[in-house]
Design goal:
It contains 1 helix and 9 strands; from the N terminus they run αβββββββββ. By secondary structure, it is an alpha+beta fold. Mean pLDDT is about 80; it is low at about 1-30.
């Protein structure tokens, strides 16, 4: 009885691992067509928080799922981009930046702070 139970559990575990492995492999192959295209961009951020309605521009580079941000006077900052079907997003310092692909290779999306929209951001190809 115990041997039969062990065999059943082992078979279910192996079967689940096999199914999961096939699903993960298919997901990785599809993921290469998603996300933000590699290249050099200008990262435009427009704040809409209370009194701060400023706009900033920063040079960034996207390689794979990593965006490198060049801030003058500081070392490059790297953030991991989570790919979505039509762009991606990243979290940094309690804020989330989202990107949706639009015309001419540009990406635009909302900037969230504490779950609220606090601005807009754009990735413009250079």
């Amino acid at each position: 009885m115990i041997t039969t139970l062990k065999r059943t559990i082992a078979a279910l575990t192996i079967g689940a691992a096999a199914v999961t492995g096939v699903t993960v492999a298919a997901g990785d192959a599809d993921a290469k067509t998603y996300g933000i295209d590699n290249g050099a961009y200008t990262f435009k951020v427009k704040n809409n928080v209370f009194y701060d309605h400023s706009t900033s521009y920063t040079k960034v580079w996207v390689r794979g799922n990593v965006m490198s941000v060049k801030v003058p006077g500081r070392p490059n900052t790297r953030v991991r981009i989570i790919a979505t079907r039509n762009g991606g997003y990243f979290d940094l310092g309690g804020a989330r930046s989202t990107f949706v692909k639009s015309k001419h290779g540009r990406y635009a999306g909302n900037l969230y702070g504490a779950g609220f929209v606090v601005g807009r951001n754009h990735l413009i190809p250079r």
